[in-house]
Amino acid sequence: MNYEIIQMDAGSWRIEDGGVRFFLLAGYDKALLIDSGMNLPNAREIAEGLTDLPLAIINTHADRDHIAGNQGFRQIMMHPKEEAHYRAGGGEGEIIPVQEGDEIDLGGRILRIIELEGHTPGSIAILDPARRVLISGDSIQQHGRIFMFGAHRNLKDYAASMARLEGRRQEFDEIWPSHAAIPLSPDLIPRLKEGAERILAGQAELKEVDFREQKIHIADLGFVSFLLP
Ligand SMILES: [Zn+2]
């Protein structure tokens, strides 16, 4: 499969896998893959081509465009609220649960888990406080589409997560999302929160479309679209 590796800084890479990307972060002692793509069952080999350090994996969430390379790992860190969705999609391996406030120490590089329930029940972001970067999964996007239709998604929880994250925007300068433009400004967080609240209040314009053999609605807010039931 075609993919592209782009170095973000010393010890950080993004792997572009078609319309989705995942990340490799290295400390002094360990490296961490954040998601594993949509078309790359060999994500582990790709990461091992970039670092010799022992490699672990964490999923921002378990949608299928983020887990293709999980099969290269025996243990996978994710939020426990993702497990049902992960298993339903055929996901394998032992789940190592992570939750709000947990730290992952890569050796001289400590990462912190931030829960962002909404896009999926156990969506998380990963904060690199020293580099002031937030790796956001699908919850934050610009010029992308945030999927909010389907039984496991909840727009009200999403708006609440954006409100909580807005309270922490002093902790990072850049956001690295899984889709569309990168890097992003933390200024997007209040705009996404307000957009979700406008949709919830029935104030956004919705357009009905056929999408993957179902009827859904799109709220195009200009800077991002929400795909809704
Ligand atoms: Zn995605």
Please, could you describe this protein's structure?
The chain is an alpha/beta fold and 229 residues long. The chain has one domain (4-228): 4-Layer Sandwich (Metallo-beta-lactamase, Chain A). It has 4 helices and 16 strands. The strands form 4 sheets. It has a 5-stranded mixed beta sheet with strand order 1-2-3-4-5. A 5-stranded mixed beta sheet has the order 8-9-10-11-13, with no helix packed on it. A 4-stranded mixed beta sheet has the order 12-16-15-14, with no helix packed on it. The protein is globular, with a radius of gyration of 17 Å. 42% of the residues are buried. The model has no long low-confidence stretch (mean pLDDT 97). The protein binds zinc ion. Zinc ion binds at residues 20, 63, 65-66, 138, 178-179.
Could you write a compact summary of the structure shown?
Helices cover 16% and strands 34% of the residues. The chain is an alpha/beta fold.
